[in-house]
Design brief:
Zincin-like, globular, 4 helices, 5 strands, alpha+beta, binds zinc ion, two-stranded antiparallel sheet, three-stranded mixed beta sheet
Length: about 120
C-alpha cells in the first residue's frame, strides 16, 4: 500500500525536525529540507557531512511499506534527528575506514530505537 505524503505532512515534518534539533541543542549545521524519492520502503532519511556541517532532511514523496513510523511525522523526525545526534560518532569510523564501520552502523539503529522508546 502506498500514498503520497501531503504538503501539510511535509510542513509538519520540517517543524518537528526543527523542534527536536532545538530540544537536543543541535546547532551549527547548514540545514536543508527536501521532499523527493529516496528509495523503496524509505519514508525519510538524512544525509550529512560532519566536516562541511551540511545536513539534508528528506521526506519521501510516496510512503510505501509497513514501517510503523511513517504516518507519524513527529516520530519520523525524532528518528532522523537522532541520526544527526550520532553523526560525529558514525562519521569517525567512516573517515578512519575502520573495519567496524558496518557494525557501528548496525548498532546505530539499536541505540536510536532504545532512545525513541524513552523519548516518544
Ligand atoms: Zn534510521
Amino acid at each position: 500500500m502506498s500514498r503520497e505524503y501531503t504538503k501539510e505532512e511535509f510542513d509538519r515534518y520540517v517543524s518537528a525536525v526543527k523542534s527536536w534539533l532545538y530540544k537536543f541543542g543541535i546547532s551549527g549545521w547548514n540545514i536543508d529540507f527536501k521532499q523527493r524519492n529516496i528509495g523503496d520502503l524509505i519514508s525519510a532519511n538524512t544525509t550529512y557531512n560532519t566536516v562541511s556541517r551540511n545536513v539534508c532532511f528528506q521526506l519521501a514523496e510516496v510512503q510505501t511499506g509497513e514501517y510503523c513510523l511513517h504516518d507519524d511525522m513527529n516520530l519520523l523526525a525524532l528518528h532522523e534527528v537522532l541520526h544527526l545526534l550520532l553523526a560525529d560518532v558514525i562519521w569517525t569510523t567512516k573517515e578512519t575506514q575502520d573495519d567496524a564501520h558496518d557494525l557501528v552502523i548496525a548498532k546505530e539503529h539499536e541505540v536510536i530505537n532504545r532512545l525513541m522508546g524513552v523519548l516518544k
